[in-house]
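Appendix B. Chain record.
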Amino acid sequence: MRARLARISGSAFAIVLHGLKGGSALELKIEAMLREIFSQPFELGSSEIRISAKVGAASFPIDGEDAETLLRSAEAALRRAKESGDKYVLHVPEITARSVEKLTMEMKLRRAIERDEFVLHYQPKVELITRRIAGAEALIRWQTPEGLVPPMQFIPLMEETGLILEAGTWALRKAVADHDVWRRQGLKTPRVAVNVSAIQMRSRDFVHTIATAIGRGAMPPGIDLEITESLLMEDIDGNIRKLQQLRELGIEIAIDDFGVGYSSLSYLARLPVQTLKIDRSFLAAILDESDTMMLVQTIISLAHSLKLKVIAEGVESEEQAKLLRLLGCDEMQGYLISRPVPFEQMSALLERERFI
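Structure tokens predicted for this chain:
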């Protein structure tokens, strides 16, 4: 059986196989190649290193009658293998259709950035006892001519394609600008929290990008960053250094979705953070499950022992709010208080605070 091998990008290789008949023969060949090449470790100096590969396969002429189409089909199958966790995936027409759909959406998102189609909505955070606005979370929305696109339909793709870097920087600058507008209007400006994605956090220019953005507003900045627990634990020492630099800029840090990831208590004590946000999944069960209530109580007690503020997100009923108040939670956000609202409506809520 003849085979040709070519490197087509940094870590991607294409193999052309001749003489295989049918999908079963192709699967057997792929499994044999993976076993032969990757079953044994490679020696590098005094160390043994194991590597692996993902495979996407396409067949002529079913999946393409020319080299370009055949390669595009194989690449679509490879993307599916990476997404699914399978070692290999054979191309089927549905995969190409989904790839085309994702590519179309990616092109629309790039145009949306160019056309300034993104907007920020704000969800208030209130003190549990007084119900006064204590902060707001900035949430990015995509405003198309046809209406708002739900975040889950575009944010995962932005993270996958790296567009979240540009969009995240825009969101931060916009939040700083909006905060400055409220300040100049004489409103009691709340601290505004902006979410940070994994790609942003891993960027070498992360701290510089934040510093440049907040430099456009009033000092000291009224900006917080919300970072998920699991993301912070990826590179704990490196992230601690980055967070310490941000704290020197006057930025406060909140651990988002606390309780659903994994963090060592010793690391939690070292992290230069000011706030823990209890994940909304706990609120859904807090009234019905005693174990969940005890866990929330433990989180609140732990946070207060570390001199951290606690915010519960996803609060939808007065019963949940009452229990959180009894447990000593500091602040809450959720539909009980307000859905995320456009800048104008958030401004109206802040204006109303003057008369409370």
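Further analysis of this model is presented in Appendix C.
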